[in-house]
Amino acid sequence: MTRPPSPPASSPPELRGGSSDFRFLAASAAKLLGSGVISAVALTIITSNRWNLLDPGVGVTLVLFLQWQALGLTVTKLGVDQVIFAAITDNPHRRLVTTAHMRRRALPLGLAFSVLVAVVFNPWYGLACLSSLVLDTQSILMLADLNARERYTSVMTASLLNYPLFFGLVFGLQAWRPVTIELALALFVITSFTRWAWLSFTRSVPSTLPTLSCQGTALTGVAPLLNFLMFRVDQVLLGTTFVAALVAKVGTDLDRQIILLGLYQQLVTCRIDMLTATPLPRLQLPIPFAHQSL
């Protein structure tokens, strides 16, 4: 991460005190959780197959692709979203620039990962993965910047334009005509583009501020990747032909049951992780942490 001289860092957000601060934190948490709750319900509906809102085969394949796309997103980010959140929280008088990371890190890694997806699934999946990875990586970095600036309404709006909008379109079209996996993938890329476009055209950071350029490294990216695999490696492996064949021998519906079981711990941990963005800047702990402060 490189940064030119900038104005003195502003102090972390101060507690408003009493019920007003509690109401702010509660409202902020609700905004951050809104899209996640909608996505959790939609994924549960698809994997449970209780209401038959989507063809079972299309639903399982779609969820497996989403797990691989999320893995690719973890790889292309290289943990730089966490760096951005910490840096902007420390000093918001800076303007984020992610061009270097996107060109030198995200694009090459996304291309290599999408080739792997094309081999595991087919070329259409690989193309959808590459398109969505480029758009979603840029969007996630902009969302980290907005989160650090406590622009939670903008974060909520952008989040609603991705997974919630995608599932809404899929379920809505299914009521009119059968949704194929190709159509679902196209809708996913469209919603990724919608979120990226909205974030790109609604950012309001003065161009006169000093720039903050961040590039992820293997050191910043290894922890998020290991954390992802700890909770989702079973669902990622289900997308491979070898593991899928083994599971099919045990039971024809076992893959869907494994996905449904894995989603519960995944969704709970992701929601807790999102909520930490609200109170964390208010803890005002020194970095690096002093032994006496812990």
Helix content: over 70%
Strand order of the largest sheet: 1-2
Poorly predicted segments: 2-18, 287-294
Structural class: mainly alpha
Tally of helical segments: 11
- What do the pLDDT scores average to? 80
Biggest sheet layout:
2 strands, parallel
Q: State the total count of DSSP E strands.
A: 2
* Alpha carbon gap, first and last residue: 27 Å
Order of helices and strands: HHHEHHHHHEHHH
> What would you report as the Rg, rounded to the nearest angstrom?
20 Å
Number of domains: 1
What's the SSE blueprint?
Blueprint: H1 18-48, H2 56-77, H3 80-90, E1 95-97, H4 99-120, H5 123-148, H6 152-160, H7 163-174, H8 181-202, E2 211-213, H9 218-238, H10 241-250, H11 254-275
Parallel strand pairs: 1-2
Written description of the protein model:
This protein is mostly helical and 294 residues long. The protein has one domain. It is built from eleven helices and two strands, in the order H-H-H-E-H-H-H-H-H-E-H-H-H. A two-stranded parallel ribbon has the order 1-2. It is globular, with a radius of gyration of 20 Å. The two termini are 27 Å apart. 34% of the residues are buried.
